[in-house]
Design goal:
Radius of gyration: 20 Å
Number of helices: 11
Strand order of the largest sheet: 6-5-4-7-10-15-16
Distance between the termini: 20 Å
Shape: globular
Helix content: 40-55%
Number of strands: 16
Bound molecules: 5-S-methyl-1-O-phosphono-5-thio-D-ribulose
Largest sheet: 7 strands, mixed
Structural class: alpha/beta
Strand content: 15-25%
């Protein structure tokens, strides 16, 4: 199994996603600041993986603390959380992971410092275990929605690399294939960071799942030719009304799917659902460096001085979403109600 990230005695170890698919190298972050840099520079990326990384970053910061009394540790804790929270704004899992550690810290903040350190390290490791379990549950819930044979289009990478393991959208595809379905995955290359061609193709090929990389602008033509029977993507944040923020280009795919009568599914752990954000227009969208568009493999591909826009995510309005698959079950429109009900659901994972 691909180890996207793991806790080690030395620090948090990440597969370096900026080097894939040609180099499989690992980076160990020994401080929480290094974890924050790994998130910012996309050594680790994908909403659930960022959430686990943030929880581990908090644990690492606390474990390394030299604080001699609980009041100093509390001040340091707030500083650690602030730095990690400032890395990337869109994936709500980042804030979820930090909040989870904050809650655990608050519960035990008057205990001996050594105990706090141990409990927080164990909590971060638990977050990782739960993420994998959630993905496997999503796989079970979602696999039945995919056709028994045919083409499935995905955008970006919502796989093992975007989570602690198994994946959300790719987890559903994996579960469907494990159940005997014969699927051909079409991976949008996902300009400009190429998560589809570099990462999705890499991990699906490792599993022997038939995969074809297409350029982002081919999706419509493929649908028209009848090669795509379903679309499944992950999410960075799902607003209370079911609007979905995901990798830039997802909205275009959703509109195309609707036009061609193809179901458009979103798979995400419940930690991606943000009931405090009423609709997609309120989701902060990360703007990334212009260099991702002005240069390709270090070579300049745009004229000097041209204006560039590079939002990392877009919002797909809920009316384009056929169903949302979570570890708690599958929900459909009206999402404002079904997501609220899901929030009350008994958690079995
Ligand atoms: O910029 P990235 O690579 O972190 O964006 C990732 C995505 O948009 C994924 O589709 C999303 O996080 C879901 S991952 C299970």
């Amino acid at each position: 199994m691909i180890k996207t990230l793991e806790w080690t005695d030395e620090g948090v170890r990440f597969i370096d996603q900026t080097k894939l698919p040609t180099e499989e190298t690992y980076v160990t972050c020994k401080t929480y600041e290094e974890v924050a840099d790994a998130i910012r520079t996309m050594i680790v990326r994908g909403a659930p993986a960022i959430g686990v990384a943030a929880a581990m970053g908090v644990a690492l910061g606390v474990r390394n603390s030299q604080a001699r009394d609980n009041a100093s540790l509390k001040r340091e804790f707030a500083q650690i959380c602030d730095v990690l929270a400032g890395t990337r704004p869109t994936a709500v899992n980042l804030f979820w992971g930090i909040r989870r550690m904050q809650q655990k810290f608050d519960e035990i903040s008057d205990q001996p410092i050594e105990t706090i350190k141990k409990v927080l390290v164990a909590e971060a490791q638990q977050v990782l275990v739960e993420d994998i379990a959630a993905n496997q549950a999503m796989g079970k819930h979602g696999a039945v929605l995919l056709p028994s044979t045919g083409g499935v289009l995905t955008h970006c990478n919502a796989g093992a690399l975007a989570t602690a393991g198994y994946g959300t959208a790719l987890g559903v595809i994996r579960a469907a294939v494990e159940s005997g379905k014969q699927l051909q995955v079409f991976a949008d290359e996902t300009r400009p960071f190429l998560q589809g061609s570099r990462l999705t193709a890499w991990e699906l090929m490792k599993d022997g799942i038939p995969t074809t990389v297409i350029s982002d602008n081919m999706a419509g033509a493929m649908m028209r030719q009848g090669k795509i029977n379903a679309v499944i993507v992950g999410a960075d944040r799902i607003a209370a009304n079911g609007d979905v923020a995901n990798k830039i280009g997802t909205y275009t795919v959703a509109v195309l799917a609707k036009e061609h009568g193809i179901p458009f599914y979103v798979a995400a752990p419940f930690s991606t659902v943000d009931l405090e954000t009423a609709d997609g227009s309120l989701i902060p969208i990360e703007q990334r460096s212009a260099v991702e568009l002005t240069h390709f493999s270090g070579k300049q591909i745009t004229p000097d001085g041209v204006k560039i826009e590079n939002p990392a995510f877009d919002v797909t309005p809920h009316q384009y979403v056929s169903a949302i698959i979570t570890e708690r079950g599958v929900v459909r429109a009206p999402y404002a109600e079904s997501l609220r009900e899901l929030a009350q659901a008994q958690v079995t994972v």
